[in-house]
Specification:
- The protein contains four helices and six strands.
- The radius of gyration is 15 Å and the shape is globular.
- The chain has a six-stranded antiparallel beta sheet, covered by helices on one side.
- With about 160 residues, it is α+β, with helices and mostly antiparallel strands.
- The protein starts with 17 loop residues before the first strand and ends in a 6-residue tail after the last helix.
Length: about 160
């Protein structure tokens, strides 16, 4: 699936080095805030272990680690407004049905679009390399990103009660 034309990120498509999108169909509607807070939920199992390994390696290269991102209490949802943090992500933009999250680091910048439809969520990742290290880093991370992120997000979305 390509970048949805309706995404706020569509205007930056010509600048990016990588883009991927995945759509998650839901059994019942949820709110954008609920979907965003689920993306910021603490990792568990294999994902948590993989991120710990990533942090050890990334820290040796002077890159941001997950400890640098940790803010707030994950048990208390945030309102998901620009400038707030949701787990690992900063909220950059927000419309009624879309939020743009991401992070900037010295090796690459990334943005994640979360588009909410009535019973679906479309998640798009856009990566911008800032150096050869960014290109190398993402070449290593990309297969894990493509395999693990969709499964992890789908699992989190299934845990969400219906919107009220």
């Amino acid at each position: 699936m390509g970048l949805p034309d309706r995404s706020v990120l569509a205007k930056r498509a010509h600048e990016c080095d990588h883009v991927d999108s995945v759509r998650f169909d839901l059994e019942q509607p949820i709110t954008l805030d609920a979907a965003l807070n689920l993306l910021g939920a603490p990792l568990s199992g294999v994902m948590a272990a993989a991120m710990r390994v990533r942090d050890v390696i990334a820290g040796r290269f002077g890159l941001k680690t997950n400890d640098a991102y940790r803010t707030g209490n994950p048990r208390h949802p945030v309102s998901c407004q620009p400038g707030e943090r949701i787990g690992l992500f900063t909220v950059y933009e927000r419309t009624e049905n879309e939020a743009i999250l991401g992070e900037d680091d010295r090796h690459l910048d990334f943005r994640v679009s979360v588009i909410l439809e009535e019973t679906a969520v479309t998640l798009t990742t856009m990566v911008f390399y800032r150096s050869r290290l960014g290109r190398w880093y993402f070449a290593v991370v990309r297969p894990f990103h493509m395999a693990i992120i969709p499964r992890s997000v789908a699992g989190n979305l299934r845990k969400q009660p219906a919107a009220h």
